[in-house]
Design a protein that fits this description.
Elements (H helix, E strand, L loop, with lengths): L1 H7 L1 H16 L2 E2 L2 E2 L2 H12 L8 H28 L2 H25 L3 H11 L4 H11 L5 H38 L3 H11 L17 E8 L7 H7 L4 E8 L2 E3 L12 E7 H11 E4 L10 E7 L9 H7 L2 H4 L3 E7 L2 E3 L12 E6 L1 H11 E3 L8 H15 L2 E4 L2 E4 L1 H19 L8 H34 L2 H24 L4 H11 L3 H11 L4 H30 L1
Antiparallel strand pairs: 1-2, 3-6, 3-7, 4-5, 4-6, 8-11, 8-12, 9-10, 9-11, 13-14
């Protein structure tokens, strides 16, 4: 009776797969968590045994929206890191070359078909988007409907088998085994790097500083008497600002050329460590209850200035004119929806979201100099979104034949490239193409989950056959496809690129597109320094790996 109900109303099977799959994926064993997508796939494979099927059009629409949103949100960071982030970007190239080589060795040695080979790539690299680009590539190989469905089912089955083992391997490798191979105490190393970047203490994931990084303190001018406001601020690297001045009971306007006199009361705001270091050169600290609040505004600003790309926070402040940078502080840096340390030594990339704090006039001035304010909006520009998907579909129709190997981008690859382009245009011209981050996340999450549920339901009957045919060979190959590129990147990153261990391991987690791995790393290190390396390789691999789906299908179809 249940089978008949699911066959007659497949939408029940879809939402059952989502609900139960995300519930199953939410369970955590140590640092290992399957996640909602893999959980949905497993449940859909089981429900697929009932014969429930979703319309192919729904699957295609869901994947097109997902892959476009993926490219759209990653576009600014992708283009920003192609050139100047080459040290980390090289690790993504290592990942691509290594996994393609290993897949082709497995294809020849095990006589894998195109679907199984693509599923291995998707699972071992923990990149679900490969399922879509590879499925579409298989549909263009010219096989009959039954053979096409069989190969597409093999993608899903090989993915589900190799994903679990790939996930466990990358989490344990980055957080446990790699530090042993490097012979470092990862927590101590992360604290050292944190201090090198200008931090004054290590903060773990989810922790907050007992004392805030930006503070305000009142002083009675002593040693600073005879100095101008500008010279005092310049002496301490513009990491503090004289915000308010009171002389003989009267409040004076603070100008850069204002001369401080003995006995003046001043309210100084800025980075805590700078104010602590400057205290002896300012005078006696006094209660400042009668002063007003100095941090009155907070703005999220998208960094678009090309000359600021690659500069550290400290360098950006040093190069700014005093009248531009005065009173403006970067409290947080968000990159690809991940928060990285906003420390003096942190490198900034075009497309980063900088959280500026300070007086209202100061942060508005700083926003105009750095980029554009990220306006909180719930409206989506559907004209821009629809045009982007249409352009992606047009690009996806391009195909070619290289060395007898048929290659076609398909709608998935086309929408990914279109999303990159439209996301980059949006970052340069922010008045068009609004796609709020919450809306983009819904498109990515629901689009991918719906697509995965649809292919899982259709693959159900063939899944058991493939597992019986290859047995433990698929998990073994999946583990190798994590370890080999991981070890290569570890060696190249340490010996040739001289990367610090926390950032290097974060980059290895990113080249595998593994969110659980970076979460485990942040927990082990005690601070967010690994995220700096993670965001760059994640942005690159998240785009390059899905484009490898059609390549693997073409190569496996010829040599498998």
């Amino acid at each position: 009776m249940i089978s008949e109900l699911l066959r007659s109303q497949p939408e029940i099977a879809l939402f059952a797969s989502l609900a139960i799959g995300y519930f199953v994926g939410s369970f955590r064993v140590g640092p290992i968590q399957l996640g909602g997508v893999c959980g949905t796939l497993i449940v859909a494979l089981l429900l697929g045994q009932t014969g429930a099927r979703l319309a192919p059009d729904l699957k295609d629409i869901a994947f097109a929206l997902f892959i476009f949103a993926l490219g759209f949100t990653g576009g600014p960071q992708f283009f920003a890191n192609i050139g100047r982030g080459w040290r980390y970007g090289l690790l993504s190239v290592v990942e691509i070359v290594a996994v393609l080589t290993l897949v082709m060795i497995a294809v020849v040695a095990m006589r894998l078909d195109a679907g199984t080979a693509a599923g291995l790539l998707a699972g071992a690299a923990t990149e679900s988007a490969v399922i879509g680009t590879a499925s579409e590539a298989i549909s263009k190989l010219g096989f009959d409907a039954a053979e096409t469905l069989r190969l597409q089912a093999n993608i899903v089955t090989a993915y589900s088998v190799s994903y679990l083992f790939g996930l466990i391997t990358i989490v344990l490798f980055t957080s446990q085994f790699a530090p042993l191979l490097l012979r470092v105490d990862l927590r101590e190393e992360a604290e050292r790097v944190w201090r090198k970047l200008g931090g004054d203490g290590a903060l773990g994931d989810g922790q907050r500083a007992a004392a805030p990084a930006l503070v305000g303190r009142a002083f009675r001018v002593g040693a600073a008497a005879g100095s101008t406001v500008l010279s005092v601020e310049q002496r301490h690297g513009f990491n503090l600002t004289v915000e308010q001045l009171e002389r003989d009971g009267a409040t004076l306007t603070v100008e850069p050329e204002t001369m401080l006199e003995s006995g003046d009361l001043i309210l100084v705001g800025g980075r805590r460590e700078a104010i602590v270091a400057a205290a002896a050169n300012l005078g006696e600290e006094v209660p400042g209850e009668h002063f007003g609040q100095i941090v009155a505004e907070k703005l999220d600003v998208v960094l678009t200035r090309s000359d600021a790309h690659g500069l550290t926070v400290a360098q950006l402040r040093e190069r700014a004119k005093p009248e531009d940078g005065r009173g403006v502080y970067i409290a947080a840096v968000t990159r690809l929806e991940s928060t990285i340390p906003a420390l003096p030594g942190t490198e900034l990339n075009r497309g980063d979201v900088l959280t500026l704090v300070g007086a209202k006039a100061d942060v508005e001035r700083g926003a105009r100099r750095l980029g554009y304010v990220l306006v909180a909006t719930q409206k989506t520009d559907f004209i821009y979104l629809a045009l982007g998907v249409l352009v992606g579909m047009a690009i996806g129709r391009l195909s070619g034949n290289i060395g007898g190997i048929s290659l076609a981008l398909g709608t998935g690859g086309g929408c990914l490239l279109s999303g990159l382009l439209f996301g980059w245009i949006r970052s340069r011209y922010p008045l068009i193409g609004s796609l709020p981050s919450a809306a983009a996340q819904i498109l990515k999450d629901f689009g991918l989950a719906t697509f995965i549920a649809a292919v899982g339901l259709s693959a159900g009957p063939d899944a058991i056959k493939l597992v019986r045919e290859y047995g433990l060979a698929l998990p073994a190959v999946g583990i190798l496809m994590v370890l080999v590129p991981g070890l290569l990147s570890l060696w190249i990153g340490r010996v040739f690129l001289r990367l610090d261990a926390p950032m290097l391991l974060g980059a290895i987690a990113g080249q595998q597109c593994s969110t659980p791995a970076i979460s485990a790393l942040v927990g082990v290190t005690g601070n967010s320094t690994p995220v700096i390396g993670y965001t760059i390789t994640y942005a690159l691999s998240n785009i390059l790996l899905p484009l490898m789906g059609p390549v693997v299908v073409g190569l496996a179809a010829k040599f498998g």
